[in-house]
Backbone:
């Protein structure tokens, strides 16, 4: 989710659960400024991480490009899964044969593992969007950042039945050199965006579509949401945008890794 006023509203409802996860773990464009080189030593995983031989480090720089090249478009969906809106988004994506990247909040994934499995079964990719969607992550301690990223990684992986997130998107773009290095060490490429549709502001379907048309020259990664409120405008905008972009010769891929 992009950083915006009032953007944390619905997350207050899951804050208690997120804090509980934090205690459990302890007991056991905005992107440009962040895209530079990372210095210092690599961060260490906390007890909530589950290292495995299949985990391979990826680049720490924030990804924007599509794996399909110049005519590729990356559809990214933030803040779910949500029992009302995620199935509708999946239906539209299926209708047009489009694969997307779902940036999931840990508590939402934990609450709706059936939806996480639906996303994976449909061939989409998973992205770690932290435990509780704190858009002030970049102002918090490294220990807090680690807990938010690693606990969410674990929650999403467990909910999916063992499929790990391939990307990490900081809430509101609140990346730090530490969080990017930590995520990359866990095989999750930091993921930015080029087009913020601002669908969370409920500007109307026409406005969402117009934003994509106007800003797509900025880059291929489009930001939408499937949770956090009424997402009917997002669903209808996708229904219009996907065939329109196909007619213009674009193909739908995934962010580079």
Residues:
């Amino acid at each position: 989710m992009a950083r915006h006023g009032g953007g944390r509203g619905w997350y207050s409802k899951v804050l208690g659960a997120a804090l509980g996860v934090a205690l459990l773990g302890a007991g056991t464009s905005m992107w440009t400024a962040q895209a530079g080189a990372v210095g210092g030593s690599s961060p260490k995983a906390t007890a909530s991480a589950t290292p495995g031989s299949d985990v391979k480090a990826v680049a720490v720089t924030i990804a924007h490009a599509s794996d399909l090249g110049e005519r590729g478009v990356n559809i990214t969906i933030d803040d779910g899964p949500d029992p009302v809106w995620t199935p509708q988004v999946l239906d539209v994506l299926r209708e047009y044969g489009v694969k997307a990247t779902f940036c999931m909040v840990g508590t939402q994934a934990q609450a709706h593992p059936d939806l996480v499995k639906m996303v994976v079964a449909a061939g989409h990719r998973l992205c770690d969007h932290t435990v509780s969607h704190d858009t002030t992550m970049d102002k918090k301690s490294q220990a807090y950042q680690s807990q938010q990223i690693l606990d969410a990684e674990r929650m999403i992986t467990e909910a999916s039945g063992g499929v790990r997130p391939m990307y990490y998107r900081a809430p509101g773009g609140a990346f730090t050199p530490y969080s990017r290095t930590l995520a990359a060490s866990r095989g999750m490429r930091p993921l930015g965006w080029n087009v913020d549709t601002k669908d969370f502001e409920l500007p109307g379907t026409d406005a969402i579509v117009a934003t994509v048309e106007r800003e797509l020259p900025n880059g291929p990664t489009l930001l939408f949401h499937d949770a956090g409120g009424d997402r009917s405008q997002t669903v209808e905008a996708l229904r219009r945008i996907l065939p329109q972009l196909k007619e213009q010769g674009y193909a739908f891929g995934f962010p580079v890794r």
Observations:
- Confidence is low (pLDDT under 50) at residues 4-52.
- DSSP finds eight helices and eight strands in the chain.
- Residues 142-160 form the longest helix (19 residues).
- The CA atoms of residues 27 and 47 lie 8 Å apart.
